[in-house]
């Protein structure tokens, strides 16, 4: 039934008025074509997501795939569910031609001959196709399908199905040795390495990143015709793997159609990985259009030291934020932006205060005669939830900049923007000051003076969504305001305040700095 739910390439392919009128007409046509193209680009791409039989938990994962795609704002998704195993497959007749791309979350009985022919015609004619994880277990005896996906596993696949494809010594190799098709070791997080950074799917992504706990497919076999290996991962023997760099992301040409094949996405845990989500979104757009317009993703979002995760339901859904409660530290999507070892990803702006790292703590120390100093994140953030722990010496005023800027033509690069105050009690901790702008306090009333606990680590929670800013200190809500004047995107900055000649030295310490990016309101 059909229902609506709300490189390293491996290529084996074989008179004058009349002239003025003409020019004007040509220009008019060009403008009309351009306008049409722009209008089309603004329309969401139509996705048909197929499920219904799978030895994986498709009833759990289909909604996650749908949320991941629709959350990007680039797609609308319809779901086509096949009859259950043993049912009448002749009734399963999706209208492929009505869609820009088909995504398969299916691993089950063979489709009818008519449906197979319609699907082959659709893809060969220029339709897009995305195979997710166990979709490459499907249809071992369907020749065209195996050429679409490039490589597959299980279902009796062996050396007669085609070679293994691996990354060895800086290149893709075909291994024709005899053996089974398809295996995996224990589920675990693993590092994915981009092998073709020029392809639209991977262009603008970091060179490597961690995927959340998942099955790392290995020993896949198939025709591997017109197939580009975009990324691989080491199938480590210590996890029950092959000891080979196995393909994880692939792009295949089939006739005039494009196919994106990802082996990631075993279950809900795997689909919480930002690596899975980002590459699925980009791969689906490429399969549908031949290009990717989704924004680039940096290494602080696709992290390589630990898997970055988020709930697919929260992608693109600002309404998912519950402003009546503080940010939940056990929610998916939190990413550490301080590695605990050094200040990679941060750079100092203004002032001569010093910053060092000891025992997983950033320590800022005052310098006599210095203006305010800031250790600033290299990355900028828009809507987010932020948490950190802080301890400040008595006598020192400090703060954390949010959505802040440093511009050459504004006060010689002075850091400016909202600052969440840090100060010993009784004081203004948790209130918001407009640093460097001349506006003064954004928080016009400050009734709470004791949220900060002196001589202890203090947990801050900060939320910024659109014009709304909220702050909690040690679980106590200190501020909740709207501010239309401040920038809605910028860096974070750890401030060491300037001191007088006969003061200090003082220190301020930060640890456990994490951010959870939110979709724009």
Automatic annotation (TrEMBL):
<dbReference type="InterPro" id="IPR029010">
    <property type="entry name" value="ThuA-like"/>
</dbReference>
<protein>
    <submittedName>
        <fullName>Trehalose utilization</fullName>
    </submittedName>
</protein>
<feature type="domain" description="3-keto-alpha-glucoside-1,2-lyase/3-keto-2-hydroxy-glucal hydratase">
    <location>
        <begin position="333"/>
        <end position="516"/>
    </location>
</feature>
<feature type="domain" description="ThuA-like">
    <location>
        <begin position="46"/>
        <end position="287"/>
    </location>
</feature>
<dbReference type="GO" id="GO:0016787">
    <property type="term" value="F:hydrolase activity"/>
</dbReference>
<dbReference type="InterPro" id="IPR029062">
    <property type="entry name" value="Class_I_gatase-like"/>
</dbReference>
<dbReference type="Pfam" id="PF06439">
    <property type="entry name" value="3keto-disac_hyd"/>
</dbReference>
<dbReference type="InterPro" id="IPR010496">
    <property type="entry name" value="AL/BT2_dom"/>
</dbReference>
<dbReference type="Pfam" id="PF06283">
    <property type="entry name" value="ThuA"/>
</dbReference>
